[in-house]
Amino acid sequence: MILINDISDAPKGKKIVAIGSFDGVHLGHRALLSQAKRLSKASGIPLLVYTFDPPTKVFTKGVPVLSTLSEKAELLAQAGADLVLAVPFNAEFAARSKTGFLEDLKRLEPERIVVGEDFRFGRGRQGSPDDLRQVAPTETVPLLCLQGAPVKSTRIRKLLEAGEVELARHLLGRPYEIRGIVVRGEGLGKTLGYPTANLETPPQKVLPPGVFAVRVRRGDDLLGGVANVGTRPTLKGKEKRLEVHIFAPVGDIYGQELSVTFLKRLRPEQRFEGLEALKAQIQRDIEAAHRHLYGRSTHSP
Fold first, then answer.
1. Which of 44, 145, 179, 262 is the most buried (most CB within 10 A)?
2. Does this model's pTM top 0.85?
């Protein structure tokens, strides 16, 4: 898969072009991309995914993202994209007329265009799928509905912001994941007997609040753990952070990248009267995470 950020870098020749923000590349997006890939295979020409960085609502409304650009590119490749065009979405791009967007689109030489039925483009969202048909035959894919509502990035974002990682998983089609670099913290977890990896995460990513059973990937290793996302009210913290206690010994991992997959919310973050109460709760959290991950407690044979 090739990732580019300028239309002039796209290779010459006919293409199937799928257009959208694709934040999170959720099940609704995958239905659209599946249709585009079928057209690509049937015609023997590549599938180019035309997307925006950041997604439109991140720029226009300041909401956090479900996937960074690198994560989105990986997910789009898994869904069958041969090329990804990630156009910078900024004030200049947002102000472009629908005619300007269509002129750019022509340069991609689309054989066929695939978009969601709610896709709009151009200044003030003036453009619709009907306008795209001026450039090439256009297929609109109906919104996928699950549990009585359309599967949309906004819906998933709200679930994650409420800590509802299991419900979000059903709409994403996979567990939610956050990647980050291990940085030094205050070392309190180690003092309490439960060392944690403090992750520096992309500032634009959604951080689901609470305590969770997680899987942690470090290189080729997949490990179990328990994660806390919050401000650490017992310690009168103010900055939201992600900390992970990994069950297996991992040695010195400062500076390494970890991928944390959120599997089950165990409880909301809460304030305790002191460190002993906090320590006791951490042990209960570890037991609960072990039961979820392995079907047994830490004390089971």
1. 262
2. yes
